[in-house]
Amino acid sequence: MDIDLGLLFGKKNPPLIGLDISTSGVKLVELTDNGKNEFRLERFASEPLPRGAVVDGNIENIEQVSEAVRRVWKKSGTKARHVALGLPPASVITKKIVLPGGLTEEQLEVQVESEANQYIPFALEEVSLDFDVIGPVQTAPDDVEVLIAATRKEKVEDRAAVAEAAGLKPVVMDIESYAARSALDRLTSQLPKGGQGQIVALFQIGAQVTHVSVLQDGQTLYEREQPFGGNQLTQDIVRAYGMSFEEAEAKKRAGDLPEGYERELLEPFLDNAALEVTRAIQFFFTSTPYTHIDHIFLAGGCAIIPGLVDMIAERTKISAAVASPFKGMQLGPNVREKQLRGEAPGYLVACGLAMRRFD
Q: Which residues are in the SHS2 domain (predicted)?
């Protein structure tokens, strides 16, 4: 979903940063094109958010979030002020429709609005509406398939307000799951035979929610969200050791916890995570005609917890890997490689948003 792209015309790919705002924090990525159809990672940075600043994808405290955005922008050292932002999938209604081919842009807009009326449970004036022509319909080449995306205006306005309050200019508004898919497509193309025909499952384990997508050749076969995330482990640490949530989160990330933590808290959490993944795969099989998955990718902050990938591969009997969105990219002089290795899976959405510069 794009907003005000007019200012991009006349300039080829001006610098654009991907800015991912989630429950736990803000992540920033800047990419450049190094030719040969490949990217170079110039900058990446993250900044935590106070609890309650973002809840269920809604920005509850614009001031706290814009302050974190300002800090992450400064920390990254970028000069770029144009940003691509993402909306959580749960706040966007998407629908594919078929329209006659050969319509002008204006005619398409009129048709899309009248179609959208049937699918959107709000008044159109309360809605930000966008559409994208996917291409001809295979069975009816004279018709085109069009993807409609709609969200409440306030969702777009809140994110735009955060960026603007931090001195940045929002130029692209995408859907987080679409951004993640763009970043994942790069990784899938590095699988044997370019990943063609392979069914790939992506598990993005966030702070509170795990987003599950199953894809084949860039098309989404299945999507759902499960109420499971890394905050469960943080809450367990809070309860077991009487720490504040912030302290528990910091010590969890630093691996600075009392003896017995791994056995008493971490192992049960990993066991639970593997169970959630197995359950989601069973749901996929029972609710679609598909009966196998070729490859699992894990993303999000929890993906790098030692032992998780191996446990999931063993439980599901499917090859599994951590989704490192910068794999195969050149690294700019400002990128610290050691830090990148530990944090990369959390940057899938931010990376996909930064890739919008080259669309």
A: 16-184
Q: Are 96 and 134 in contact (CB under 8 A)?
A: yes
Q: What are 168's two structure tokens?
A: 């940045």
CA distance 125 to 127: 5
How far, in Å, CA of 198 to CA of 193, rounded? 9
CATH topology for 191-324 is Nucleotidyltransferase; domain 5 (3.30.420)
Question: In the chain, how many H helices and how many E strands?
Answer: 11, 16
Task: Go through 332-346 and write b for each residue having 16 or more CB atoms within 10 A of its CB, e for each that does not.
Answer: eeebeeeebeebbbb
243-268 pLDDT, tens per residue?
Answer: 999 899 989 988 899 999 999 999 99
Please give the mean pLDDT across all residues of the chain: 91
Q: CA–CA separation, 90 vs 151, rounded Å?
A: 10
User: Tokens 């808290």 appear where?
Assistant: 265
- Fold annotation for 91-153: Dna Ligase; domain 1 (3.30.1490)
Question: Residue 91 in contact with residue 82, Cβ under 8 Å?
Answer: no
Name residue 95's amino acid.
K
Q: Render pLDDT for 279-323 as a digit per residue (tens, 0 to 9).
A: 999 999 999 999 999 999 999 988 988 899 999 999 999 999 999
